[in-house]
Every structure is written in structure tokens, then in C-alpha cells.
Amino acid sequence: MRTELIQEARRQAEICNACRYCEGYCSVFPSLHAERAFSDGDITQLANLCHNCRGCYYACQYTAPHEFDLNLPKALAEVRRDSWESFAWPQPLARCFHSHGGAIALALVVGFALIFWAIRAIGSTGGEGFYSVLSHNAMVLIFAPAFLLPLFSIGISLRRYWHAVGGQPIQLGDLKAALSRTAKMQDLAAGHGEGCNFEDEDRFSQARRHVHHAIMYGFLLCFASTSVATIMHYGFDLHAPYGFWSLPKLFGVTGGVLLTAGCYMMVRLKQKSDRNLGDVSAWGGEIGFILLLGFVALSGLVLYAFGSSAVMPALLAVHLGSVLALFLLTPYTKMAHGFYRVAALVRDAQRKRDVSVVR
């Protein structure tokens, strides 16, 4: 990890630790104030615990033009992104994406769409609906490795992170506490539940929390759609295409709408926000990832709407190409931040448990 980023975040954390004005603002400050000195692992943990709500910045009396020049959201955002790049496997891919994320995402979508178009030109072994273009076995052969290999990569990254932050053996209570906070997006409501200051300076808003809910649950519904369809195919010998009132379609359409709307609103919030309170160098990569995720959802909805038309093969090629690009890029984009965030919350639950035992 880059030493200068860690050192700057440590300098600011030490000043915040002496001031303690923001102790009740969010989950970062109780964890920060529990320490007297900060190792590199401590700073990495604080950075991944931070949700960039920015409330501390607007409440701080030591921001520029004060000589302390505090901007803790920016300092932690830079450490956070650097930690993802440092722990990623293979590492060079992560640094490349965050520098040129939009261009890479676009190139992959176009490239994979062309690949699928070529496969379609070769032909299919037969089948109904989408399988008349690309057989079920061919889809499994392509997408199973594209799904499992990124999970393997993320597993290596999280193992490196867990070692760096001094993680302990995980207990069920730690995991339940972390998942509960994640499901509620509790930390995006900040310390007093009023919301965060992400998009409109010192005005509190729940917009970012609601948008994250739409994206997270939209994605989970889409994943549930694919999972249920897989169980129906292999477990009950019920093959696609499925009707609208089937679980795969209900989950998929609902998830697609939530995901599309959530990504659109997230881009709008980011455009309204102050880039200087985040990691400026990663802004393009973040926008590229959000657009890719939204495009996957939107192209899926369009494919469903025109699935019986003459343009279906072209729409299928574009959609499958974008899905494959999303899968393969997952360990190197902000998609990975969900895994790191849960890991940071689990580690924070362990810290709280240790404190309660001492008391």
C-alpha cells in the first residue's frame, strides 16, 4: 500500500482523536476513538468502515483554510481505494481499471457482445427462446468459470485484508451484526439517523441510503432469479423460457427495475456531490462501473420486452456481453467494495465484543 496515503490518513485520525467532536457521527469515530495509536492495519480498517457520508467534514472546524487542513472523507477514500488495489489478485488489473474504468468497461461490453454474436453465427444445437441463439450448455460453459473465478479472486483479496487488519476467527454473532447493519444500510443514516451529507453539503438526506438499497436489493433479486431458474432447470426438469408469473421472471423483472433506477440515481447523486471529498482519481472508474451495472439491468429488461422480436439475437448478444464483462471485472471495480464493507463491519463487531468482554 502507498505509504504517503496511510501517513496522511494517520495524521488526520490523530487530530480527530484529540478533538472527538464527531464521536457520535458514524461508525468510524467510535472505532477511531478506541485507539491511542494507529497502525497501518488500523487505518485500513477505518478506511473500509467509512461510508463517505461527509458529515464530519461539514461539522469540522479544522478544514481548510485552517492549518490542519482536515479532509478525513477524502483521506480515507484514498486509503480505501488503495487497499482494494493492493489486496486485489491479480493486482495490476485493479490499478488499471480505477485509472481507465469507463473505457475498459465499454471495450469489454463491445468485445464480448461481438464474441457472442460470432457464437450465434455458428449456431445452436436447438432450443426455445434464447436457447435458439445460444444453447444452455454453451451458456453454462461460458458463465460458470466467469462467475467462479472472480469469487476465487475476491476470496484471496479478503484473506489479505483480514490479515492486514488483525481479524480474529469469525463468530456467528459477528457475522449477524455485520449483515444486519448492511441490510439496513445503517451507516448511511449516519450517527443520528438523519441521513448523510453526500450530495448537498451540510443538508442531511436519506437519498444515498435509499439508492444503495435499490441497487443492493435489485442485484440480489436478479441473482435470486438466476438461482431459482437453475434449481428449476436441474432440480425439477423445468426448462426456460418461463412465464411472467414464474419466480425467475418476477424476481428478474423487479430486480432489473430496481437496479436500473438505482444506478441512474447514483450517477445523479455523484454528479451533484463534491468530488474533492472523495477519491478524485477513482471517480471515472466508479462512474464506469455504475454505468456498466445499470446497463446490464437495462439491457436485460429490454431483452425481456423484445424477446419475441427479430432483434432478439442482437439484444441477447449485447446483454450477455455486458453480464460477462461485469462478472470478470467484479474483483477490480467498486463491486468489490460490498465484500470489503461487510468484512470491515465484521471486524468492527469483533472490536465491540472485545470491549464488552473487557468491561
Automatic annotation (TrEMBL):
<protein>
    <submittedName>
        <fullName>Tricarballylate utilization 4Fe-4S protein TcuB</fullName>
    </submittedName>
</protein>
<keyword id="KW-0812">Transmembrane</keyword>
<feature type="transmembrane region" description="Helical">
    <location>
        <begin position="287"/>
        <end position="306"/>
    </location>
</feature>
<feature type="transmembrane region" description="Helical">
    <location>
        <begin position="312"/>
        <end position="332"/>
    </location>
</feature>
<feature type="transmembrane region" description="Helical">
    <location>
        <begin position="103"/>
        <end position="123"/>
    </location>
</feature>
<dbReference type="InterPro" id="IPR036197">
    <property type="entry name" value="NarG-like_sf"/>
</dbReference>
<feature type="transmembrane region" description="Helical">
    <location>
        <begin position="129"/>
        <end position="152"/>
    </location>
</feature>
<keyword id="KW-1133">Transmembrane helix</keyword>
<feature type="transmembrane region" description="Helical">
    <location>
        <begin position="242"/>
        <end position="267"/>
    </location>
</feature>
<feature type="transmembrane region" description="Helical">
    <location>
        <begin position="214"/>
        <end position="236"/>
    </location>
</feature>
<dbReference type="InterPro" id="IPR012830">
    <property type="entry name" value="Citrate_utilization_prot_B"/>
</dbReference>
<keyword id="KW-0472">Membrane</keyword>
